[in-house]
Task: structure prediction
Amino acid sequence: MTSADTTVLRVAGRPVARYVTRPELPARLSPRPYLHPVTTLSGVSVTELSPADHAHHLGVGVAVPDVEGYNFWGGRTFVRDQGPTELDNHGAQRHLGFQLRDPDGFVEELRWVAGGTEVLRERRTVAATALTGTAWALDFTFALTNPAATALTLGSPATNGRPGAAYGGFFWRARKEASAPDVFTADTEGEAAVHGRAADWLALAGSSWTLVFAGATDATRRDPWFVRTAEYPGVGSSLAHDARLPVPPGDTLVRRVVTVVADGRLGRAEAAALIRKAVTP
Result:
């Protein structure tokens, strides 16, 4: 089903993701479009929406906790020398319209608004592609433009004084199960080893599913990964890892992440082969 506020992505005619453009959410959750549920080809859901542990985690999307002091992530804001603090600083991503909308993808225009002004303008391009009989790929690109006449910067709790919390950018809240998922890259494994480091690809393997994430541009590959498995399962990029990221007036920041969504638990060789197939033009 496709409506004005919902788009269903399909692979070989099979629904694999639902995209909600105008969710009805409280301001504290930083309302924004999201993909949920995202499923494997056999129908296993691999996302969560507003789970009890983090109500502001909304499936798959783009979220940044600090855009010139505005919170586009949701929840509390980390304040230096104070810690997580409830502030009235939440922004929202507003769907403007689709430039293209097909069964296997779309191009969308959005406005990031806060404090009564447009802070960022975004063009989002999303595509679903078949890989094998048990795997498909979600290709997700976002381009953020600074529409103002002055520079702005993107930050994270890490740049505001919280070590290890450089989240912000593309984020995938995965399915929580009885046991924490395994996480590994081409040469290491475990949350402590992969979190906060750049890697060409990273895999999250649950009980009967595997997600393999890869940056598909040089700039995206330079961003360290933000990874959680023990507290909750989630993977995202870190736009502002060591320092605030400037976006000059009129400039556009572009990131592209490709994610393999596979049935079954993949090993290193299988994960590498599938993500290579998904990213290679």
Summary: The first strand starts at residue 6 and ends at 11. The chain is about 5% helix and 45% strand. The mean pLDDT is 96. The CA atoms of residues 126 and 140 lie 5 Å apart.
